[in-house]
C-alpha cells in the first residue's frame, strides 16, 4: 500500500490514530500506578517513624505524581471519543461485554482515586495525619482497581470468555453473572493484570531510584557540609528504597511475563510464533536473537535470522527444551480449517482461506525483544546502585549519576513496547477467536471480530486523517509540557520553603502549599 493509499484508507488511519493516542496515554499509566503506591509507602514510613526524610520524599515525589496523573487523564479522554466515533462498529459489537467492567471502572475506581487525590492534595495540615495517610492509600488502591477493570476488557479482546454470539443483532453478549465471573477470572486476564502491576512497580522503582541516585551523587560532589548531609540523610535512603522496588518489580515482571507468555501460547499461538520467528512447527525450537523478514506461508524464502539458541523458545513456551512449538505457516492452515468450520464466520467473512492471519511480523518480533531488553537494563542499575551504597556508603561517582539518568526513560519505553506487542500481535483481529471453542463447536467460537470490520462506516478517511494530525500535534505539545514540568520539579529537589516548617500540623498553610500552589 502506497502512502497516498494509506492516507485515504479509513481502517489504516483509524488504527494509526488509536495506536498513537493509546501509546501516548500508556506511557503515563505505569508511573501513576506504581508511584502512587510508592508515595503511600513513603508517607506511611514517615507516619510510623517520624523521620523527616520520608516526609520530604513524599512531598517531592507527590508533586511528580500529580503532574503525571493530570496529563494521564488529559490523554485518556480522547480514547473515549474514538470508541464511539471511529470505532463505532467495534463498540456496538463489544458494548454488552465492556459495559459492566468499564462502568465499574468509571463509577468506582476512577472516582475513588480522583476524589481521594483531591483530599490528599488539599488535606495537608487540615486532616489528621492518619486520615491524610488513608487518602493516599485510597488513591493507590483506586489506580490499581482502575487498571483491573480496563485490563479485564482488554483481556477479553485477547481471549473472549463468558459470552455468546447473538446472530440476530450480530453482537457479542455477556452470558449473565456466570459470564461476568468468567471474564474476571480468566487466566489471560489474571496474568495480564499481574504483569501490568509488576511492570508499573518496575517503572516507578527506576524513577525513584534514578532521581535518588542522581541527587545523591550531585549533592555528594558539591562537597559542602549541608550538601553531603543531604546526600547521606535524604537521597541515599530514597535511592536504596527505589532500588529495592526495582528488584521486586523486575523479578515479578519477569515471572508474570513468563506466565502470560505461556497463556498466549495456548490462546494466541500465531502471536508467539511471530514473536519467536518460528516459521513451521518445530521440535525444540530455538530462540532467535535477531530476524529480518517475515515467515512465509508458502515455499518462498525464509527470513534472515541471527544467533539462534537451541531449545530456548520451546522451553519458554512449554517448560521443555524438546517440546513442539507451533509455526506461523502451520498455524495459518489450522486457523483456516477452524474458521471455515464455523458457519457464523463464513456467513460474515466468506472463505477463511482468503485471509492472512499473520500479524505484522517485524513489529511483533522486535517489540517483544525491546520490551525484554530495555526492561532488563534496570537490573544493572539495581546491582550498581546497591553495591555503591552498601554499608552506609554515599557514592560520588559521576558515571553512576549519568547511568541513573539514562535509565529513567528505559522502563517507560519497555512498557510501551510491551503494549505495542500485545496489541499488534493480535492482528488482524480486534476480538481474537477462542480457539478451544472453535475446535469444539461451542457457540463461544462465533465470538470474534476482524479489525477491518470494527471501523465506523460513517466517518470518512479524510476526517480521520485530519483528527490524526491534530491529535498527534496536540499530544506532542502535551508531551513537551509533561517533560518540562517533570524536569522542573525534579530539579527543584527537596529544599523548598515548604520543608522549612516543622510539621504540617504546626503550619497548615505553609505545609499545604507546594511550589506550584496546592
Number of extended strands? 8
- Structural classification: mainly alpha
Fraction in beta strands:
5-15%
Rg over C-alpha atoms, rounded to the nearest angstrom: 25 Å
The rounded distance between the terminal residues' Cα atoms is: 52 Å
- What is the chains' assembly state? single chain
Strands in their spatial order, largest beta sheet = 1-2
Question: What does this entry look like structurally?
Answer:
Helices cover 70% and strands 6% of the residues. It has one domain (22-265, 355-458, 471-512). The chain starts with a helix and ends in a 6-residue tail after the last helix. Strand 1 (163-166) and strand 2 form a beta hairpin. By secondary structure, the chain is mainly α. Strands 1-2 form a two-stranded antiparallel ribbon. It contains 18 helices and eight strands. Helix 5 (129-158) packs across helix 7 and helix 13 (361-388) packs antiparallel against helix 14 (398-407). Residues 496-518 have low confidence and may be disordered. It is globular, with a radius of gyration of 25 Å. The longest helix has 43 residues, at 225-267.
Amino acid at each position: 500500500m502506497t502512502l497516498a493509499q494509506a492516507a485515504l484508507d479509513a481502517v489504516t488511519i483509524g488504527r494509526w490514530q488509536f495506536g498513537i493516542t493509546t501509546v501516548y496515554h500508556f506511557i503515563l499509566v505505569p508511573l501513576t500506578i506504581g508511584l502512587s503506591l510508592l508515595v503511600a509507602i513513603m508517607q506511611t514510613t514517615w507516619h510510623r517513624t517520624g523521620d523527616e526524610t520520608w516526609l520530604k520524599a513524599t512531598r517531592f515525589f507527590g508533586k511528580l505524581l500529580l503532574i503525571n496523573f493530570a496529563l494521564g487523564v488529559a490523554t485518556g479522554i480522547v480514547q473515549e471519543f474514538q470508541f464511539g466515533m471511529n470505532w463505532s462498529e467495534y463498540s456496538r459489537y463489544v458494548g454488552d461485554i465492556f459495559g459492566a467492567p468499564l462502568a465499574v471502572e468509571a463509577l468506582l475506581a476512577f472516582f475513588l482515586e480522583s476524589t481521594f487525590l483531591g483530599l490528599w492534595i488539599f488535606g495537608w495540615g487540615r486532616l489528621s495525619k492518619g486520615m491524610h495517610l488513608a487518602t493516599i492509600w485510597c488513591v493507590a488502591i483506586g489506580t490499581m482497581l482502575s487498571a483491573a477493570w480496563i485490563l479485564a476488557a482488554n483481556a477479553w479482546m485477547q481471549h473472549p470468555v463468558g459470552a455468546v454470539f447473538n446472530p440476530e443483532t450480530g453482537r457479542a453478549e455477556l452470558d449473565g453473572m456466570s459470564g461476568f465471573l468468567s471474564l474476571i477470572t480468566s487466566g489471560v486476564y489474571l496474568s495480564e493484570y499481574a504483569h501490568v502491576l509488576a511492570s508499573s512497580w518496575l517503572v516507578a522503582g527506576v524513577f525513584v531510584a534514578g532521581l535518588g541516585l542522581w541527587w545523591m551523587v550531585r549533592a555528594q560532589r558539591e562537597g559542602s557540609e549541608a550538601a553531603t548531609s543531604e546526600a547521606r540523610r535524604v537521597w541515599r535512603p530514597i535511592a536504596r528504597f527505589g532500588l529495592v522496588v526495582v528488584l521486586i518489580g523486575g523479578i515479578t515482571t519477569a515471572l508474570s511475563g513468563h506466565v502470560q507468555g505461556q497463556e498466549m501460547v495456548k490462546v494466541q499461538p500465531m502471536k508467539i510464533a511471530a514473536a519467536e520467528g518460528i516459521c513451521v512447527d518445530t521440535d525444540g525450537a530455538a530462540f532467535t536473537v535477531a530476524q529480518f523478514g517475515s515467515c512465509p506461508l508458502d515455499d518462498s524464502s525464509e527470513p534472515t535470522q541471527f544467533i539462534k539458541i537451541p531449545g530456548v523458545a520451546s522451553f519458554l513456551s512449554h517448560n521443555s527444551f524438546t517440546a513442539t512449538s507451533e509455526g506461523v505457516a502451520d498455524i495459518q492452515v489450522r486457523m483456516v480449517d477452524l474458521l471455515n468450520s464455523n458457519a457464523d464466520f463464513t456467513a460474515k467473512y466468506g472463505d477463511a482461506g482468503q485471509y492472512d492471519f499473520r500479524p505484522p511480523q517485524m513489529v511483533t518480533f522486535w517489540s517483544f525483544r525491546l520490551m525484554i531488553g530495555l526492561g532488563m537494563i534496570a537490573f544493572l542499575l539495581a546491582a550498581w546502585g546497591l553495591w555503591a551504597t552498601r554499608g552506609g556508603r554515599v557514592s560520588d561517582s559521576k558515571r553512576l549519576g549519568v547511568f541513573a539518568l539514562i535509565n529513567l526513560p528505559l522502563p517507560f519505553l519497555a512498557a510501551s513496547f510491551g503494549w505495542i506487542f500485545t496489541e499488534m500481535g493480535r492482528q488482524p483481529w480486534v476480538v481474537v477467536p477462542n480457539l478451544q471453542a472453535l475446535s469444539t463447536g461451542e457457540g463461544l467460537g462465533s465470538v470474534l471480530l476482524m479489525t477491518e470490520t470494527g471501523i465506523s462506516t460513517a466517518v470518512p478517511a479524510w476526517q480521520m486523517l485530519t483528527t490524526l494530525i491534530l491529535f498527534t500535534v496536540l499530544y506532542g505539545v502535551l508531551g513537551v509540557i509533561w517533560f518540562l514540568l517533570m524536569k522542573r520539579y525534579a530539579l527543584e529537589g527537596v529544599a523548598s520553603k515548604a520543608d522549612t516548617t516543622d510539621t504540617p500540623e504546626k503550619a497548615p498553610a505553609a505545609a499545604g502549599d507546594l511550589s506550584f500552589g496546592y
